[in-house]
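Record type: monomer structure entry
Structure origin: computed from sequence
Chain ID: A
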Amino acid sequence: MASENDIMAAINRLAPYVAPAMEKHHIDPYQEMVEVGEPYLALDWLLGSATLPEVSIPKDVLLYAFGCLTDEDKEGYEHLLQSAV
């Protein structure tokens, strides 16, 4: 698994593309995860919302975030790489 600094960098790169499409009741848990020191869960939450139709993520941003995931979690998000711009 990636370092906490790498995960936070991935969140900071990914959030501007995903968060605007998220509803408030989805943003609050994501922010709480970051605040309580669970950045990996926050990254997972963001990636889960990356499938929203109005979300378009550059491939380099997505690849960076992907690099922070465990191999098991990567399998769950492989489909995102195919839709990356």
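Annotation 1: The mean pLDDT is 91.
Annotation 2: The chain has one domain: 4-83.
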